[in-house]
Amino acid sequence: MPSIVTLSRHMQFGISLLIPQIATQFSLVTYNNERACQPRVSKGASMATQKTQAEEYAASQHTPEGPLPNDETSLSLTKQPPVITIMHASVGSGHKAAAQAIAQAVEALRGTHGVPANVHIDVLDILDFGRVHFDGNKTAASFTGATRPIYDISWRYTLTGRILWGGGSSWSRIMFPSFNDYVQKNRPLAIIATHITAANVAVGARMITGVEYPLVCVPTDYEIEGWWPHLETDLFCVATEFMAETLRPRKVEESRIAITGIPIRQGFSHEQDTHALREKLGIPTNKTMVLVMAGASLPQPYVRFRAAIEQTIPYLRGFDDMHFVFLPGKDANYANHLQRIFSAMKLENVSVLNYVDDMPALMHAADLAILKSGGLTVTECLCARLPMILLGKSYGQEKANTTMLTAWGASMHVTTPRELIMTLRHLHDNPASLQALIINGNALRRPRAAQDIVERTMKLVGVPQERERHFAEFYWGGKPAHTR
Fold it and tell me: What pTM was computed for the model?
């Protein structure tokens, strides 16, 4: 058993870096037939207004106390529909995107594969249930500069080798009592978590409330660090056999591991009319179309990526058979900056697109992507059969993604602008290499991941389990399958 000092250090690096984002607002997000996910509490509302909205939501969703009049219509209104809860944390966009993809799959399977026809789907940000408010995105972005090696040590080494976290009630009891109330009132059929914080809070709520439900954990990268509640998770849905080999020494039985892939939104595996889309966007149809994916809701994670890209811009005119499409995301300032550079250089084989709603269609229209190695984005590229060049040094989960993709020959990896130019020259002169990347990527391609996760989850609903309650649980795992 580790010492108190050791545990304190682990808690400092692990919890403060990986599951620090907690919020006071009680904000619920739902997904149903009539409309896509939307917040029930606005971020700009006052605390009093938020409390009122939360109370109104609770009143609208739950059966009032005491008997209603003996009327069939009134009695039917007291029957709360079954709930499936899908939880993420707003630390980057990938966890939320995966949760929404699973919600789409539940909706598509409504009335089949054990999914009740009248199921209510809750997509929740666990940070909205905490006592203390943190901006998850901004905090995550702070680990993209000089602190990246520290984050890498925390993610890949701290509590990921032999000393592991099994799950407990302490975190939920102290920091997330409002989520315990949510569980007590809604009694979900199952909880599916795409982030570590969500998974741990769900374990604690189950222990505290005594409400029984299966917990399904869905890591959204190509490796698993050690803060997932290994011993209390009913099912891990992972992307590859490599990840399963990480779980087995952590005392996760074979029956609790499913290789499903990483869940992504619908549309990435469907064929598109790429010729028409290119014409609509004014992109040549007779050239290799290269997506430069340099945008996100926050610019900080892309600072180094953008710096490397800008050093390659003067050389792009030399790639006659390529057309480069830059995607700055929601960053209008960066989009204007690129436009000024391209205009000053009189580059003709470049375009800048503002925020794109239909990414599946754009990925199908492209022949190559240059991007960071985020788990959801690379998975979308795999499912769209879009070859990749991963740019920049990778840390933490992105290092695991880079290692996995390059080991399979499903992507190329460069760390400097000079390497990027040389790699582009190779692909420009040898376009058949792009097809090789697609073929190799097919080994990791699992476009039905979201549906498979839902189907496996529903098989666990109603299955009785013996549960233990504990404040906290650390344990000693077996020898790691993969050297860290």
Answer: 0.81
- Distances 102 to 145, 358, 456 between C-alpha atoms, Å: 32, 19, 12
> If the chain, 484 residues long, is cut into consecutive pieces of 10 residues, what is the mean pLDDT of each piece?
37 38 34 35 35 40 40 50 95 89 97 97 94 65 62 60 84 92 97 96 96 97 90 96 92 96 88 83 92 74 86 95 93 91 94 86 94 94 96 84 94 96 96 95 95 98 90 86 68
Strand ranges (E), 239-337: 257-259, 288-293, 322-327
Strand partners, 288: 322
**CA distance to 168, 420, 423, 456, per residue, from 303 (Å):** 38, 17, 21, 40
191 vs 457: CA distance, rounded Å: 9
DSSP 423-458: HHHHHHH-THHHHHHHHHHGGG--TTHHHHHHHHHH
Using the CB atoms, write b or e for 307-326: b if 16+ within 10 Å: ebbeebbeebeebeebbbbb
Residue 140: the pLDDT is 58
Q: Round the CA-based radius of gyration of the chain to a whole number and report it.
A: 23
Cβ pair 41, 127 in contact under 8 A: no
DSSP 318: G
pLDDT for residue 434:
96
Backbone angles phi, psi at 413, to 5 degrees: -130, 130
Identify each DSSP E strand in 173-294 by its residue range: 190-193, 215-217, 235-238, 257-259, 288-293
pLDDT at 342: 95
CB 136 within 8 A of CB 16: no
Q: Which of 405, 403, 384 is nearest to 395 (CA)?
A: 403
158 and 226 Cβ atoms separated by less than 8 Å: yes
Say if strands 215-217 and 257-259 run parallel, antiparallel, or are unpaired: unpaired
CA-CA distance, 230 to 452, in Å (whole number)? 21
Closest to 115 in 3D by CA, of 156, 77, 83: 83
Residue 261: strand pairing partners: none
Angle at Cα 143 formed by Cα 231 and Cα 44, nearest 5°? 90
Beta bridge partners of 350: 324
